[in-house]
Amino acid sequence: VSTHQSPDEKTPITEVRGVSTSVAQALQEAGYECEQDLRKATDSELASVKGLTKQQVQLIRAAVGRASSKE
User: Fold this and answer.
1) What pLDDT digit, counting tens, does each position of 6-41 carry?
2) Buried/exposed code over 55-67 (b: 16+ C-beta within 10 A; e: otherwise)
3) Nearest 5°: CA angle at 7, between 39 and 70?
4) Quick check: 55 pLDDT over 70?
5) Per-residue pLDDT for 47 more than 70?
6) 3-state SS class at 34
7) What is the DSSP letter of 8?
8) How far apart are CA 6 and CA 18, in angstroms?
9) How far apart are CA 63 and CA 19, in angstroms?
10) What SS3 state is found at 12?
11) What 3 state SS string does 37-67 have?
12) How far is CA 18 from CA 24, 35, 37, 70, 71, in A?
């Protein structure tokens, strides 16, 4: 059973589990709009977002996973 209900991964970050309103606002200001954007970002890219802690990055990663690398 998948925990990701949106096959197109266009779920807005405001609806991603574990992302608070303040975190969502910081992410949006940094250019992240949907779950797919978060999945594609590296941990260091997320950690560089002003206002995000390492713990919040870990929560986001646990909620959305990470994009599979095809390189």
Assistant:
1) 455 689 999 998 899 999 999 999 999 999 999 999
2) ebbebbbebbeee
3) 45
4) yes
5) yes
6) strand
7) T
8) 16
9) 9
10) strand
11) HHHHCCHHHHHCCCCCCHHHHHHHHHHHCCC
12) 10, 12, 16, 27, 29
pTM: 0.79
**38: nearest Cα among 71, 16, 70, 6:** 16
CB count within 10 Å of CB 31 equals: 9
Residue 16's nearest CA partner among 67, 70, 57 is 57
Q: Which pair of structure tokens corresponds to residue 31?
A: 């250019």
Q: Tokens at residue 3, please? A: 């925990």
